Amino acid sequence: MAPPTIQQDGEEHCPVIASSDHDGPLFTSNNQSDNALGAAAPKTSQVTITSRNPWPRPDPHLIGTPVIGARFPFGLGQHCSYDPFPPQPWPQAVEAVSVTTQSGTRDYVSLSEASLAWLSSLGAIEFHTWSPRPSDPYHAGFGRILLRQCGSSDIATLRPACRATRTILQEHGIDAILMFNGIDGADLWLPFSNAPAYPDVLGWLHAIAAEAADRHPDMLSKRPERQCGDRIHINVVTNAVGHWSIMPYSLRGVASFAVALPVLWDDLNTMQNGDVTAANIADRLASAGDVFAQEKARIGPQSLPDAPRLTVSEEPPAP
Fold first, then answer.
1. Distances in Å between the alpha carbon of 245 and those of 27, 53, 57, 127, 286?
2. What is the C-alpha to C-alpha distance for residues 258 and 47, in angstroms, rounded to an integer?
3. pLDDT class of 34 with cuts at 50, 70, 90
4. Among 62, 79, 182, 308, which one is most buried in terms of CB atoms within 10 A?
């Protein structure tokens, strides 16, 4: 059976430059024994990635799904360059996931330890995904709600926004894994055991986001980020084939190499973006374990509710 043709096709909100002309790895090292990838931090940073630090590492729940690397050829903290389709030939150990969208059929890199090592050798620092089920890029393993700080909003605004969004999800029978994105917000990952199709996920989450913004208009907004003022922007548009956001435990392309960090909901008040970086992620894993896996196990099986959905054309004006 031919895969369905997906109408959505695009990328996350990070500014993008040309993604096909590689200009060399951002990580170089004169001491290959420091890291299995021969990777050390750029000269602009004091952080060194060593063998104590298992990065890049694939999240086991996403093995076999498409992964998109992001480079920072203009420097850390600057515009990123996504590489969804690295140039051929690929190493023999790197497998492909063929995906058909409105733009045609293309081969994405399949997530594995070998593929992350190879993408890193091409200069990738960040790793992104649309979180489908393994070997099925058209059905969701996870839904994602992205919460971003706008204007003068900060962690004191982000924390209640995370709680408020979770409360609405729970009222609909769904729970979420909390992940600080490492820079300017938090992502809520919703595990689904019934493999819903992406248009259904997107429609349902549009309705959830609209409900959240309507209930908390002084704190949350669905308007474009530039129109959010000092509120938290709530975004669900990456729940579509070919639309991606940062993966759990990925490094971020900033000077500190902050980590996109899953945290327990009980730790929301005591942790924030930037607390965990490439320098201390190994210690964090040793003390806290794989929080993403723990939270997924705690939530257990849950299915996308059979509730009214909003399409983009039906979506009401955002507050």
1. 22, 23, 17, 8, 26
2. 10
3. very low
4. 182
